[in-house]
Amino acid sequence: MQASSTPDFPIAILGAGFAGLGMGIQLKKAGILSFVIIEREDDVGGTWRDNTYPGCACDVPSDVYSYSFELNPDWSRAFSPWDEIRDYLRDCTDKYKLRDHMRLGVAVNEARFDEEAGFWNLSLSDGSTVTARAVVSGLGGLVDPAYPDIKGIHSFAGEVFHTARWNHDYDVAGKRVAVIGTGASAIQVVPEVAKEVAKLSVFQRTAAWVFPKRDYIVKESTKKRYRQFPFLQRAVRLIKYWMSEFVGPFVILDSPRLSGVFERISARHLDSSVVDATIREKLRPDFQFGCKRLLISDDYYPAFNRDNVELVTSGIEEIHANSIETADGVDHPIDALILATGYQLGLATAPFPIIGRDGRSLDDAWSDGAVAYKGVSVSGFPNWFIIMGPNTGPGHTSVLVYTEAQIRHALQAIRKMIAEDIKTVEVKQDVQDTYNTGLQKRMKHTVWTSGCSSWYLNEDGSNHSLYPGLAFEYVLRVRNFKPADYQIVPS
Ligand code: NAP
Fold this sequence. Notes:
This protein is α/β, with parallel strands linked by helices and 491 residues long. The chain is 30% helix and 19% strand. The site of NADP nicotinamide-adenine-dinucleotide phosphate (NAP) has 24 residues, from helix 4.
């Protein structure tokens, strides 16, 4: 199919991270060239453009955390650092000549569906409008930092920044620095910052389970072999993928017996890493393994053996101009404050007003929690496809397995629309409801609802973020775009 065959079928892709770029690549491979990728920042890369903090790296093996169709024999480590992943995405952008399709530095302010015409009208931040027959949203679920609402935080006179917005102009060397948070970002930044600063105070609200990472440098001979025989890397990828699927039930199901296996390994890791018994006990979690996101690190626990690192477990009472006061009455003097406090969940609300059929907004449709059919399509929002939508996050393996499955699904729908001159496809409400009722039933058996608090959960404790099963099962479910599940209106 040539470019000229699809001008009547403009497609807008939102976001230039793994999801948006992956969609663009697959459209190109299918010969569909009438698409534009709209990205609010000035570069591609998504989370791997935004997260540049010291120690930032992927905590999923790179052989699996990359496109299946674009293996990279040059990863320097088993778990590659952020800049290699960003460069990988830039290289993919160039290799597949996606830059001609891009509008960088413009945000979508509003999306409104024109029922009469069967088109989406997107109002952009530069005052222009894009009209698209189909929209593929690849905006990501963890993009905008969550800033904690701590008393006095705005009166802090020193430097304050979030891990996802690292201030590289500020030199932490020799300073007294505080890190708030002990999640996936914190456990990466703490060991690196500890090496530089005069004193590091880590403010822990909830102790986290940390599993050994076993990272390693990839030998030059291995890279050479991967280049010569790509099937070898493909085999390694497959093995690592199936290993993660095997681990799945241990970290997904609400089974103390299964979680106990990982708790024992992590506890041994803690016991053998931290010298001081008091600190060790403060670092010991009291929730079921897997309830919060799986964390892996080899250097987080040992950081607490350093003389310049302090673990603070008394709650933060107030932040003053030059210190943090804790509930035990201690004042911790600091020069800089690093917020490793996570993200606003992208699925909690629509990213901007999205107005579908009958003038209904996505926020309204999602007022009881984000729902979609197979995570991709939402009833009332024809021709709108979401990559990494509701209930499609993994708790145990690479998110890209899910991302690619959704891209294939959206592509099938788009190809059918083009081939059969279809004006709209919209998932049937009853089909979507049945799917989500089934998901939420299964959710009750997962560890995520076993009592801890996490970004996975909405305020009412419901989980609209993760998929309550294994990746291969999800992939099989979305493999075929089934026309019977949709209202299809011809042009
Ligand atoms: P997070 O998991 O949401 O952790 C936020 C941390 O900040 C938690 O320890 C939380 O404590 C603490 N916190 C939040 N508000 C606080 C307050 N007011 N006072 C004290 N402590 C507060 O955020 P994250 O570490 O940035 O990770 C978010 C997600 O990003 C991860 O789960 C993962 O999906 C992704 N990520 C991935 C990688 C990777 O390598 N692939 C790396 C980093 C992040 P509580 O636990 O008590 O709530």
